[in-house]
Write a structure and sequence with these properties.
The protein is mainly beta and 257 residues long. The chain has three helices and 18 strands. It is globular. The termini are far apart.
Length: 257
């Protein structure tokens, strides 16, 4: 009887241990990454080697503290397929005025979004700049959303890398792949809001700086001297929808209708 009692107790402990291990394993899979807070409230947000400097891993979130900054610079961040690394605001992040644009380069599976604070619709507010954002390097699976731009002299967003030469694949060394611009509010911009590439055609300079799988949606552009607010050069599979454009072409001889 004593032996039977020990066997039952041993089996129960074994089952309980197995269940605990399974529960722990399941919770580990669903665990979220850490939060890394940056920004002192003024000056520059400058991370040219962001992943190494901030020790970023899959599903981590970079949280920018509220304040008035000169510019943002995030370069060299990569998350694994099926994962994201997020850059988000924790209050109003104001950028400008400054002669230099905010820059992003060499990002893979990164989400930059300004909806991190309740009650603030556009958490990234860029104003009184020559150029809003400049993007280069390799970019794949990168989404920008909830930005506000006011009084931009040059391009709102400039996106170009002449070293990318299309080789028939969707690799980020071949072209810009899976890029999104969502929920932008743009007011009083003197040139193009979204300048993807230059003005050359394929027959002029070849298959350089191409894009595939682009989405531009829920953006408003109000008051621009130009008509060409979305300049999409060498773009395949563009999905442009639910955008509102008004008061365009003040300095353009073409009819805006």
């Amino acid at each position: 009887m004593k032996t039977l009692h020990h066997l039952i107790l041993h089996s129960f402990v074994l089952l309980l241990t197995t269940f605990s291990l399974l529960l722990f394993s399941g919770s580990s899979v669903k665990a979220q990454g850490k939060k890394v807070f940056v920004g002192s409230g003024s000056g520059f947000i400058d991370y040219p080697n962001a992943q190494a400097t901030l020790n970023l891993k899959d599903d981590d979130t970079v949280v920018i503290n509220p304040g008035k900054y000169k510019l943002m610079n995030f370069r060299n961040i990569t998350a694994s397929p099926g994962h994201k690394i997020t850059i988000i605001n924790s209050g109003l992040v104001e950028i400008g005025p400054d002669p230099s644009p905010s820059t992003f380069s060499n990002l893979t599976n990164v989400d930059i979004r300004g909806d991190g604070a309740p009650g603030i619709e556009f958490g990234f507010y860029l104003h009184d700049l020559i150029r809003g954002i400049s993007i280069d390097g390799v970019m794949s699976g990168v989404y920008f959303s909830y930005f506000k731009m006011v009084n931009i002299v040059d391009y709102g967003v400039f996106f170009y890398n002449p070293s990318l030469v299309y080789n028939g694949t969707n690799n980020n060394t071949s072209l810009f792949y899976d890029i999104k611009f969502l929920h932008f509010s743009v007011y009083n911009i003197k040139t193009t809001f979204l300048q993807l590439g230059l003005f050359g055609r394929v027959m002029d300079d070849g298959l350089v700086s191409m894009f595939r799988k682009l989405e531009v949606a829920y953006c408003t552009v109000d008051y621009s001297d130009q008509q060409d607010v979305f300049h999409l050069s060498k773009v395949l599979e563009a999905n442009v929808h639910h955008n509102r454009l008004s008061h365009l072409g003040a300095n353009d001889y073409r009819h805006t209708g």
